[in-house]
Amino acid sequence: MTVISDEVAPPAPPGPLKWLRDNLFSTWYNSLLTILGGTVVYFIVVSVVSWVFTQADWRPVTVAPLLYLVGQYPRAELWRAGLSLWIFTFLIGMSWGVWKRYLRIFSIFLVVMFAVLAVFPLETPTITPAIRIAMGINSILILLGYRIGRMRVVNGKLVAALWLAALLLVPLVILSGFPGSSVLPKVATAVWGGLLITLLLSVGGIVLSFPIGVLLALGRRSSLPVVKWFSIGFIEIVRGVPLVTILFMFSIILALFLPTEARIDQVIRALIGIVIFSAAYMAENIRGGLQAIPPGQIEAAKALGLRSFHITFLIVLPQALRLVIPTIVGQFITLFKDTTLVYIVGINDLLGIGNAILNSNPAFVRLQMEVYLFIAVIFWIFSYFMSYASLQLEKALGVGER
Fold first, then answer.
1. Which of 339, 315, 375 is nearest to 205 (CA)?
2. How many CA atoms lie within 13 A of 185 on its CB side?
3. Sign of CA dihedral 69, 358, 188, 255
4. pTM confidence score
5. What sign does the dihedral 182-184-190-191 (CA atoms) show?
6. DSSP H helical ranges for 63-155
7. DSSP one-letter code for 1
8. Kind and range of the H or E element at 299?
9. 3-state SS, residue 349
10. What are the residue ranges in the chain where pLDDT is below 70?
């Protein structure tokens, strides 16, 4: 007996002409708006491209590119910054091989960017052939890490453990060094700067504030009054104070009350302030996810005989974190941009280096547009890829679909 299927083949995808007719020229006023909008966009793009390539003076950006990358980090110890960058680019490649599409575009972008930096015709004595070779090696390390990440013996847990080890090894050992050491002499954080210090503060703030925020969110729902009211007081007080005030308190006022021998490093003080500020907001984001979990799941877990610890960390918390991924990533992006406030307390981050270069030469005084546009593009690139990774993670976990 012949069985006739009732399924109907899906329609063919519309061609570009049909898409244009349906979406841009469907009516006379849509056609008019499309023409007007296209004309405005055309003149804006032409003006921006013309300014970038013919009118802008990029000397404040090209005169000292190493300052934007590492600040005043000793040039004799620059190999340590290069080694740190190699470690991270290799791990990015491994992450690409394990988690594939989530890091594919970002990894390919880095491969192309480091290859371009290696051969870019930049006329400055600070960019030596050794630095160009080091930049080019980063592209090779990303591809090598990708091949290794595709091996069966490499999994997500191993890569996550390597990332954690690198995040501890690089800033605490390779970059900072040890007093009296001939191989890794101590380098004071006062000479760290540029993109190096921006990434250190933002990554440190993101990584350290996350577990503290989780504990504060759980503490706010605790049945123990001391834990509950401490968490509520901490969250509400910190959220009521601007970040710049917290930075001033930790960077200037706190140092005045501590004896000279007990004073904490300036960068560490700023990092503590950023972590505390971010943890308070993180706690509220996670608390929103905890409240979204139906109480029936907790009652069912109790009926099965699970303890409160297992209910919280195996059932409630994973679902809550999954629900608030977009909010958490949005806060990480905000924190990454807020690190520019450390310039106010005397730390030469990327923005501080840009201002220092502008003030170093009277010929650069009127070239703020070029410097700030360059810094804005760097922040946009990092923020965009953080947002893109979040979107891919949301699709993989099905956030908002169930």
1. 339
2. 8
3. negative
4. 0.83
5. positive
6. 65-70, 78-99, 101-119, 129-149
7. -
8. helix 295-303
9. strand
10. 1-13, 398-402
